[in-house]
Design a protein that fits this description.
homodimer, alpha/beta, five-stranded mixed sheet, 13 helices, globular, 4pyrrole_Mease_sub1 (chains A, B), EC 2.1.1.314 (chains A, B)
């Protein structure tokens, strides 16, 4: 059996009882560690679970999945995924490959950022499609998020923005020379996300959002030091110190809001007067 | 401290380690049991947690929350919620009341149907806003879901439909006579949901969807007997036997789909030929 086990969002105690029982009994345990991370190290997980863990990087999962699935028709293999197994990143290709090999699959759900973001105080009902924001470079500034946000905002919906993480990345030089030397991990902050968003709005000029649009920055959702900062996009450009260490996510508000959400989120506002004024003028209309 | 603890989707082993530690230590433990249910009885939870639980019905949570919050500035109170504390139903009002009373609040995330539905094989990124479907009566057939689905479909997005549950409901007669006699619980099935949807489409005639629109019925997501059935809305009208006992949910597909989703979900199709034919004609276009 292949078990896809969700680990939740923050530390070793976020696994479910059901998930932990599977991890303890499985013949082999893999940890998918390239699309998201927990806030604790692998060694903490290993000592808590009482198991050694093989870290599965993108190359392994995408090109060498048969090694992960080896003998899984006879023994139990646990594939651990931060968040929910089918959350922000799906592992449908691994499941399809298992099916082809006649291997049974079960998944153990857990909190995903896509539902965990509800702790910011906005109704999950009113979220539209989710978008991703990658680190811009001089030559590469993918802006497909802009049209998605435009669609969401056209019908009043909030947008969850998932922020890039770079782990096990090689510099162009090391890549060219075939040197397996990896750069230190980088995690996008809300400040970078907000400024990249404003940069694209400036370029496109369609008025999908602007410096005064309301948003919520979220850090370490579900963790002991969970933190939310609410404000305009312009204010959030400077919110990194307030938010603290990774992981960060962001929500851009849609206009379909409820007075209860106003009151709830206001608690996190950088500047309550600004928050109230803009909310009153532009939100809660639908 | 008030702890909002998510219980996950199916049974007593879906609580996280973090959540269980809080439940074991709390002075009082409440279970919110009117917006969703686990697939096991309260007595199973009590014996597994080693704690007695006070079931909090809607009246208690909405009108008597100060009893739940009593002394929570000095002792720990655990308020258990099926799914995620901020998932399909938010408990923002309870948190706001706690803030007013100077009570600190922490929440423990868990799987919600809003992310758990990813196990059906559609990318969670491409879901629009979530809608609810209530049991129609002769005089009451609320159809606000129709316009929401229209909005989602206009931009190619999937729609998660959450199905009504009726627990602790009184008949009109018992209500009128003030008799606290409750009807047996009722849980909407995918079959009822699909036929109510078609009824409203027939009435409105805007062609938002039709008998040949593709959808997925989901039963007991995250549970040992989790089951998905994919087909047209017309086929899903007759899928209740295949899906089995509650809880059910449904997804109406948007047209923005990926070939991998086609292949993944096809496994659940009532009729694979129909599924392939309609998919090829109408989906995967965006």
């Amino acid at each position: 059996m292949l078990y896809l086990v969700g680990l939740g969002l923050s530390d070793e105690t976020d696994i479910t009882i059901k998930g932990l029982e599977i991890v303890k009994k499985a013949s082999r345990v893999y940890l998918e560690a390239y699309t998201s991370i927990l806030l604790v190290d692998q060694s903490v997980l290993e000592s808590y679970y009482g198991r050694s863990i093989v870290v599965a990087d993108r190359e392994m999962v995408e090109s060498n999945s048969d090694e992960i699935l080896r003998d899984a028709d006879k023994v139990d293999v646990a594939f651990l995924v931060v968040g929910d197994p089918f959350g922000a990143t799906t592992h449908t290709d691994l499941v399809i490959r298992a099916r082809e090999l006649g291997i049974a699959v079960k998944s153990v759900p857990n909190a995903s950022i896509m539902s965990g973001i509800g702790a910011a105080g906005l109704q999950l009902y009113n979220f539209g499609q989710t978008v991703s924001m990658v680190f811009f470079t001089d030559n590469w500034r993918p802006a497909s998020f802009y049209d998605r946000i435009k669609e969401n905002r056209s019908i009043g919906l909030h947008t969850l923005v998932l922020l890039d993480i770079k782990v096990k990345e090689q510099s162009l030089e090391n890549l060219a020379r075939g040197r397996k030397i990896f750069e230190p991990p980088r995690y996008m902050t809300v400040g970078t996300c907000a400024s990249q968003m404003l940069e694209i709005e400036e370029e496109k000029g369609e008025g999908v959002y602007g410096p005064d649009s309301l948003a919520i920055g979220a850090a370490r959702v579900g963790g002991k030091t969970e933190k939310f900062v609410a404000g305009t996009l312009k204010e959030l450009c400077d919110s990194d110190d307030a938010l603290g260490p990774p992981l960060h996510s962001m929500v851009l508000l849609g206009t379909r809001t409820h007075e209860l959400e106003h009151e709830y989120v206001r608690e996190f506002a950088v500047n309550k007067e600004t928050w109230d004024r803009i909310w009153k003028a532009d939100y809660g209309k639908q």
